[in-house]
Write a structure and sequence with these properties.
- The structure holds two protein chains of two kinds.
- Chain A is of the alpha+beta class.
- Chain A has three domains: about 20-225 and about 240-250 and about 290-315, no CATH class; about 325-440, no CATH class; about 450-505, Arc Repressor Mutant, subunit A (Orthogonal Bundle), CATH 1.10.10.
- In chain A, about 40% of the residues lie in helices and about 20% in strands.
- Chain A has 18 helices and 16 strands.
- In chain A, the strands form three sheets. In chain A, strands 1, 3, 6, 7, 10, 11, 12, 13, 14 and 15 form a ten-stranded mixed beta sheet that branches.
- In chain A, helix 8 (about 355-360) packs across helix 12, helix 10 crosses helix 11 and helix 15 (about 450-460) packs across helix 17.
- Chain B has a domain at about 5-45: Histone, subunit A, CATH 1.10.20.
- Helix content of chain B is about 35%, strand content about 10%.
- In chain B, helix 1 (about 5-15) packs across helix 2 (about 20-40).
- Classes of the chains: A alpha+beta, B alpha+beta.
- The complex binds zinc ion.
- The site of zinc ion (ZN) has 8 residues of chain A, from loops.
- Zinc ion binds near residues 39 and 171 of chain A.
C-alpha cells in the first residue's frame, strides 16, 4: 500500500508551460491554552505518556465535555486577524472515524458551521509584490493522540504489528485554517505556499495564541494540489500531502507534487485522489490512504456541547484589541527608521526587527542598531548555525550594549574603527563596551594641540589638494583626513579633523 | 425513506471496523432496517412552526475557564486498556494509518 516506488517527475518548466496548478492549504494550529479544548487536562508538551488524560479526553462513557473559554476566544481572534466573518451562532460536530488515535471514535470538530469564514491574508512575495490568499474557513477542533508503531519483532503475536498510543495530545485545542483553492498562481505556487505559511505563522505568533513551532508539530500544514491543462476550466484530481512540517518543505512538497502530477497526466495516466505522505529526508511524497469510503465521516451535531454564539459586542471588543498585523508593523517601522527596501529585507531575513525596535526603544539610533546587530555578530551567529537574536541571547547581550557603544562614538570617545574593536571584545565576552574600551586602552586622542599640529603638517605637505579645497572642491578633504588619522596613529577624531581642515582652508564645515 | 441494503450494512461495518459474517450481514440488514423504520416514525411528528434544534435545552455559550484540573493517574487511565506497553495503550495497528 505505501510502498515507496520512485515517481516519474516532469521538469518544472514543462509543468508550468503545460499546466496551471490549483492549490489549497490546510493549516492546523495547536492553541497555547493551559488546558485541553473540552476538559481541564494540562497541555504540557513532552509530559510522560498518559499523564494528562481524564474520562473526557479518553472518551469514557458518561463523561461530559465543556468547551474551553480561551479556546473559543482564540478562535475568534484568529478569525478576525484573517479578516473573516465570525459566526453569530455555530455548533460543534462529531467527525466519526475508527482509529486508535481518537479513543472516542470521533473527533469533536466543526462541520457546516465554522466559527470563522470568508477571510483573506495578504502575503508578500520575494519580488515585493503581494498575493491575496482567500480563506475559506477557520474552525475549532481537537488534536488526536500520538501513536508509536511497533513491528512484529517483539513477537507478542507472531508477525503482528501494533500501535502504542499516548493520549496526552488528544483533546488539545486545534484551529484548522483552510484556504480557498488558489488558481492562477502559476510558477509562483510553491513560493506562495511557503510565504502564506510563514505569514500565517508570524500572524499567529503576534496574536500570542500558539507557539507555532512547526518542528514540534504545534503548526502543521497539509497541501492539496491538482493540475489542470492550460485553458481547461475544471479542476483536476487532487492529492493531499499531509503533515508538511517546515516552511522549506511546504515549498518543496508543492513543487514535487506539481512535477509528479505533470508526469502522470502527460503519460495519459490518472492522478489518484489519495493522501500522500511527505518525507523530509528524501523530499518526496509516497502514497497513503486512497480516498474512498474512509472519507465517510458521517458528521452530525455534537449533542453534548451547546452552541457557541459570540455576541457582536464581544467580537468587536476582541477586534479592537487585536495587535498590529505584522506586515503593517514592518511598513511602519521601515518608514520610521528610514531603511531602504534592501536594508529592510536584510533586517527581516536576519530576524533583526525585534532587536532593532528594542534598541531604538532603549535610546539607540535605528542606523546604529542595524549596523551593530548585523556584520560581525551575524557572522559569528551563522558560524554557530544560529540567528542573531538567539546568539545574542546566548551571550546575554542586550540592546543596552549597542546603545552604550553608540554613545561612546557620539561622545567622541571612540572612532568607528575603535568601536568595532570594542564590539569584538564584547562578543568575545570581555564585558560591556566601556569595560572593553578601558581594558584595551581604546580612546580617541583628544589632544587638540596634537590634532592642530597634524592638520597643519598635512596641509603643508599637500599644497595641491589644499588649493582644490580652497576653490570649493570639498570632497577632496577625504584624502587629507586619512593622512591626519595616520599621523594620529589611528586615535584621532576623524570628524574633528575634517572640521579643522575645512576651517583652516576657509570652507564652511 | 430508502430501504437499507446489504451494501449499506457492509459499508458501515467496514467504517466501524466490525467483521460481519455473511449470516450476520443478512440478519443485520433485517434488524437495522426494523430499527430505522421505527425511528422514522418521528418524521411524522408535526413540526410546522418548530425551529430545528440539535440540543433539547435552549442554551448557548457554556464554557469553562482555562484552568488545569487533576487528570487521572496513568494507572487509572490505563486500567481499561486491552494491553499496556511502555505506559501506553497497546492496540492492533491499522495498516493504512501513518
Ligand atoms: Zn482530559
Amino acid at each position: 500500500m505505501s510502498t515507496s516506488t520512485t515517481d516519474a517527475l516532469m521538469g518544472y518548466d514543462e509543468v508550468i508551460e503545460r499546466f496551471d496548478p490549483v492549490m489549497g492549504l490546510e493549516v492546523h494550529v495547536e492553541l497555547g491554552t493551559a488546558t485541553k479544548m473540552f476538559c481541564g487536562c494540562a497541555t504540557t508538551f513532552g509530559a510522560e505518556p498518559n499523564t494528562q488524560v481524564c474520562p473526557v479526553c479518553l472518551g469514557l462513557p458518561g463523561a461530559l465535555p465543556v468547551v474551553n473559554a480561551v479556546g473559543v476566544e482564540s478562535a475568534i481572534r484568529i478569525g478576525l486577524a484573517l479578516n473573516c466573518q465570525i459566526a453569530e451562532w455555530c455548533r460543534f460536530a462529531r467527525k466519526n472515524y475508527f482509529y486508535p488515535d481518537m479513543p472516542k471514535n470521533f473527533q469533536t470538530s466543526q462541520y457546516d458551521e465554522p466559527i470563522a469564514f470568508n477571510g483573506f491574508l495578504d502575503v508578500e512575495l520575494s519580488d515585493g509584490s503581494t498575493y491575496r490568499v482567500e480563506i475559506e474557513r477557520a474552525h475549532m477542533e481537537e488534536d488526536t493522540g500520538k501513536s508509536l508503531h511497533v513491528g512484529g519483532a517483539t513477537g507478542r503475536i507472531h508477525g503482528a504489528t501494533h500501535s502504542l498510543v499516548d493520549y496526552n495530545r488528544a483533546g488539545i485545542p486545534l484551529i484548522e485554517i483552510v484556504t480557498k483553492p488558489m488558481v492562477g498562481a502559476g510558477e509562483r505556487a510553491p513560493e506562495i505556499a511557503r510565504a502564506y505559511v510563514a505569514t500565517l505563522r508570524d500572524l499567529l505568533k503576534g496574536l500570542g495564541v500558539s507557539d507555532v513551532k512547526m518542528e514540534q508539530g504545534s503548526m502543521r500544514c497539509d497541501v492539496n494540489l491538482s493540475l489542470m491543462a492550460k485553458g481547461a476550466e475544471a479542476f483536476g484530481t487532487r492529492s493531499e500531502t499531509k503533515n508538511v512540517n517546515s516552511l522549506r518543505s511546504v515549498e518543496r512538497a508543492v513543487r514535487y507534487e506539481m512535477c509528479r502530477h505533470g508526469a502522470l497526466l502527460a503519460a495519459g495516466e490518472k492522478v489518484v485522489q489519495e493522501t500522500r505522505h511527505w518525507h523530509e529526508d528524501t523530499g518526496m511524497t509516497t502514497a497513503g490512504r486512497e480516498k474512498s469510503d474512509a472519507e465517510d465521516y458521517r458528521y452530525f451535531p455534537e449533542p453534548d456541547l451547546v452552541p457557541v454564539a459570540p455576541s457582536r459586542e464581544w467580537v468587536e471588543e476582541l477586534r479592537a484589541a487585536l495587535p498590529e498585523p505584522p506586515a503593517q508593523r514592518r511598513k511602519r517601522l521601515q518608514t520610521a527608521y528610514g531603511f531602504s527596501d534592501l536594508e529592510m529585507r536584510d533586517v527581516l531575513n536576519a530576524g533583526l526587527l525585534d532587536l532593532i525596535e528594542e534598541t531604538v526603544a532603549a535610546g539607540g539610533s535605528p542606523a546604529a542598531a542595524r549596523k551593530w546587530w548585523s556584520g560581525e555578530i551575524a557572522r559569528r551567529a551563522s558560524a554557530q548555525g544560529q540567528d542573531v537574536p538567539t546568539y545574542a541571547a546566548g551571550l546575554g547581550l542586550s540592546p543596552a550594549a549597542v546603545v552604550e557603544l553608540e554613545g561612546m562614538v557620539t561622545s567622541g570617545r571612540l572612532n568607528d574603527a575603535m568601536a568595532r574593536q570594542a564590539w569584538e571584545g564584547v562578543l568575545d565576552g570581555e564585558g560591556t563596551p566601556t569595560q572593553v574600551a578601558d581594558a584595551r586602552g581604546l580612546q580617541l586622542n583628544q589632544d587638540t594641540g596634537a590634532l592642530e599640529a597634524a592638520v597643519d603638517e598635512v596641509i603643508a605637505a599637500n599644497p595641491d589638494v589644499a588649493d582644490k579645497i580652497r576653490d570649493g572642491k570639498v570632497q577632496a578633504v577625504g584624502a587629507l583626513i586619512g593622512q591626519v588619522m595616520k599621523a594620529m596613529k589611528g586615535q584621532g577624531d576623524a570628524a574633528a579633523a575634517r572640521a579643522l581642515i575645512l576651517e583652516r582652508l576657509g570652507q564652511p564645515s | 425513506m430508502a430501504e437499507l441494503t446489504r451494501a449499506d450494512v457492509e459499508h458501515l461495518s467496514r467504517l466501524a471496523r466490525i467483521d460481519l459474517s455473511d449470516v450476520e450481514l443478512d440478519r443485520m440488514v433485517g434488524e437495522l432496517g426494523v430499527i430505522l423504520e421505527s425511528v422514522a416514525t418521528v418524521q411524522q411528528a408535526p413540526t410546522d412552526g418548530v425551529e430545528a434544534m440539535s440540543h433539547p435545552l435552549p442554551l448557548a455559550n457554556v464554557a469553562r475557564p482555562d484552568e488545569v484540573r487533576a487528570s487521572l493517574t496513568p494507572q487509572e487511565a490505563l486500567s481499561g486498556a486491552p494491553e499496556v506497553d511502555e505506559q501506553r495503550f497497546s492496540v492492533p495497528r491499522i495498516l493504512d494509518q501513518d
